[in-house]
Amino acid sequence: MNTRPLGKTGLRIAPIVFGGNVFGWTVDEKTSFEILDAFLDHGFNAIDTADIYSSWVPGNHGGESETIIGKWFKARPGARDKIVLFTKVGSDLGKPGQKGLSERWITQAIEGSLSRLGVESIDLYFSHWPDSETPCEETLGAYDKLLKAGKIKAIGASNLDARQLTQALAVARDKGLPPYQVLQPEYNLYDRASYDGALRDLAVAEGLGVVTYYSLASGFLSGKYRSKEDLGQSRRGTGVGKYLTARGDRILEALDAVSARHSAQPAEVALAWLIGREGVTAPIASATSVAQVKNFAKAAKLALQPQDWQALDAASATP
């Protein structure tokens, strides 16, 4: 499978990143291994996780996703060398001092992630959320030390707006610190407003890698949620109700039409739209079955035509 440069990190990734938030939540360990095997077999090579995944599940504490991925690495000799591994720091783990982007916490949190993943180095380490209580200089200084120690290879940021990213890049330049080289924004056919515009323009101008999350709008863009009655189909359904709007209906209608022209599934088309967008390196997408990984492979090969782009852009244009 063709790979793409991930901004200026020196890393190259296939056009879809696996979202590891499902591990330890909607997917058990055995199924996780099967899905990861299939993902690698289809030629994909990047996995995204975070120290917080999946703490929201009753009985979990965070780190469950990293632990499952680490067990998969251990059970599959050689797999680690084929994977570009992302994880994140900064979310609130529910214990005193275990949140944010202070040097103290980053220094502690990286050791936990490395241990759970069973690796010596993480390829791309993200600031999960902005931290208004910690100076950006302190955060980037902590990452500088981790980079020099070989514990991480590149840094990125998730959930920054254009102003925050501009400030972070300026601090890096002014203080001689490593800049964020990858951005992870929420972005999909429905949720376009926060990335399209100033943030996307900045990412393109700076040559940042961009990996989008909620790329299928929590499953809405798969087409399986079309009414309130459909929301009970999965544990993720409760987060989909907000998409059941007139605009959501238009987007699904456009996806259906494009899907029919290409004998594809709506999710495949939605991912292909992201893969082909300027300012996007690769969407992050989760799967709960091997069959869904096969859909990823189809999406990566799907070439949308001008009429497809026109239909999807018109239906999803933000008000």
Helix and strand element order? EEEHEHEHEHEHEHEHHEHH
Shape: globular
CATH level 4 superfamily:
NADP-dependent oxidoreductase domain
- Taking Cα atoms only, what radius of gyration do you get, to the nearest Å? 19 Å
Which class do the helix and strand fractions yield?
Answer: alpha/beta
Share of helical residues: 25-40%
The CATH architecture can be given as Alpha-Beta Barrel
Q: Mean pLDDT score, rounded?
A: 96
- Strand percent estimate: 5-15%
**CATH class (first level) name:** Alpha Beta
Distance between the termini: 37 Å
For the secondary structure, the number of strands is 10
Number of domains: 1
Instruction: Give the helix tally.
Output: 10
Pfam family, one: Aldo_ket_red
Domain NADP-dependent oxidoreductase: 15-315
Protein name: Aldo/keto reductase
Organism: Comamonas faecalis
Report on this model:
This protein is α/β, with parallel strands linked by helices and 319 residues long. It has a single domain (4-316), classed as Alpha-Beta Barrel (TIM Barrel). 39% of the residues lie in helices and 11% in strands. An 8-stranded parallel β-barrel has the order 3-4-5-6-7-8-9-10. Strands 1-2 form a two-stranded antiparallel sheet. Helix 2 packs across helix 3 (103-117), helix 3 crosses helix 4 (136-148) and helix 8 crosses helix 9 (290-301). The chain is globular, with a radius of gyration of 19 Å. Residues 15-315 form the NADP-dependent oxidoreductase domain. InterPro entries: AKR_Detox_Biosynth, NAD(P)_OxRdtase_dom_sf, NADP_OxRdtase_dom. Pfam families: Aldo_ket_red.
